Request: fold
Amino acid sequence: MPDTLRFLLDEDLSPEVAAIARGLGLEVLSVHEIGRTGYDDEAQLTFSASQGRIFVTRNRDDFIALTKTFYSTNQPHYGVLLVPRSLPNQQGEKIAHALKRWRERYRETEPGPGFVDFL
Reply:
């Protein structure tokens, strides 16, 4: 059975994380890999939603605020996962494994749309 949760990594995360996560069996793309660097946060979250992907970023404050805006305007998104500073960007393997552990928590039930959570 294919995994129904798919992820899109923000440009503040190394594209190496996506490659490692795919090796762990996750459906992950990086904005670096698909030519979407330099877009503003709203454009990235809107694109991620259009692709049915959970957006993964370190940009906590902006994406919490953006989620509130999306909610108040009834604009759906598939969720935002926030990467804490305790997971160093230069250690992509740690972030990829944290993403896999997060995914395993939702093996039986998936989070609802528009959620914000931490890895």
Observations:
- The chain has one domain: 6-118.
- The longest strand covers residues 53-57.
- Strands lie at 6-9, 27-30, 53-57, 80-82, 116-118.
- The mean pLDDT is 93.
